[in-house]
Amino acid sequence: MKKIFAITVVLTSICLLVNAQPMKGRATDIEAQKIGFITQRVGITADDAKVFWPVYNEYQTELRKIQSARRTQFTAMPRGNEMNEKDVENFIEKEFERKQQILNLEKRYHERFKSILPIQKIAKLYIAEELFKAELVRRIRDFRPPNQ
């Protein structure tokens, strides 16, 4: 449940950050920042980038599909007194399935990443992804709307 809460906080934070920026290009801007952050932290060379980024982008696309299905299910979930044991059990079972899908995806792409980058850079990639998420959360937390 702590992981679900943490994921919800991160997703909510990202949404808040995104809403604080002009509509046009905000996702592209965040994605560009992420690419720069990862490139710098991992030490991805120009030669690495040619092979790595297309594979990483495939990974991100597949991950977003799984996360999108989760958000859809979460918003459709009955709330409060409308929830019965069957609804809750079904929701939890689907959460386990999605977590397994993400784990399977991560394992599959880990193997692909190993064919592209040295294992040290892959470890740095995983750390950089977490640091970038933390940075987004920090920015959102520190954000103060104008005139307040």
Q: How does this structure look, described?
A:
The structure is a single chain. The protein contains 5 helices and no strands. It is an all-alpha fold and 148 residues long. The relative contact order is 0.14.
Keywords for this structure?
148 residues; mainly alpha; 5 helices; 82% helix; 0% strand
Summarize the structure.
This protein has helices at 2-20, 26-42, 46-76, 85-114, 119-142. The chain is mainly α.
In one word, what is the shape? globular
Mean pLDDT: 82
Distance between the termini: 34 Å
Largest sheet: none
* Count of discrete alpha- or pi-helical segments spanning 4 or more residues: 5
Question: Helicity, in percent?
Answer: over 70%
Low-confidence stretches: 5-21
User: How much strand?
Assistant: under 5%
Give the topology.
Blueprint: H1 2-20, H2 26-42, H3 46-76, H4 85-114, H5 119-142
Helix pairs in contact: 1-5, 2-5, 3-4
